[in-house]
TrEMBL record:
Boundaries of every MmgE/PrpD C-terminal domain copy: 44-182
Pfam families the record matches: MmgE_PrpD_C
An annotated Gene Ontology molecular function: lyase activity
Family matches, as Gene3D superfamilies: 2-methylcitrate dehydratase PrpD (3.30.1330.120)
UniProt superkingdom: Bacteria
Protein name: MmgE/PrpD C-terminal domain-containing protein
Amino acid sequence: MLNAGAVCSGASTTTVFNPGLYVGAVLSLGAGHDHVKVQCDPHAASLPLWYSREIESEIEAQMNVPYAVAMVALGFKSGAEWHDDAAMNDPRVREFMQRVTVASHPHFEEVLKEDSQARIGSAEVHARGKRFTHELRYRKGSPATDASRMTDDELTDKFHHCASRVLSEERARRVADTVWNLEKLQDLTGLAQIW
């Protein structure tokens, strides 16, 4: 499985996590008691690393559900910049994290028994006196279905975005083109040379 987000798509393949799950609803959050409840794998929901509303390091940020929900809600583009000190210490992110709770999804185990590829997860947003819910059976990047699988364009875009910190645009394009056409290469040394 290839992860579509800038955080762990699940601690290995046993949990569901897709920041895109929350986008539509979290944008409606207002002030006061508005909050987000995320339901996922019971094992993950029991791990402080996943549900803590405080992060101290890049590793903690990669595994933290409240942090990922805050990043999506605040419009941060998914990528390496999620783990920059400026993002991790942004007061808006820290405040938003306080409004996110993580719980076990009540049907996670039964859905997993029915389909070993499924990693059901949901978001419940209480905003401006209304309740919004969204549930996914498969996380983005899962090979389980055509709809959940990342397209070649999505994979290429993610590569270009992540590589932009270390490769020029032209070099990244050459790497991506070479990888997409690996079966046509007569000699793999060409791949090493463009890195």
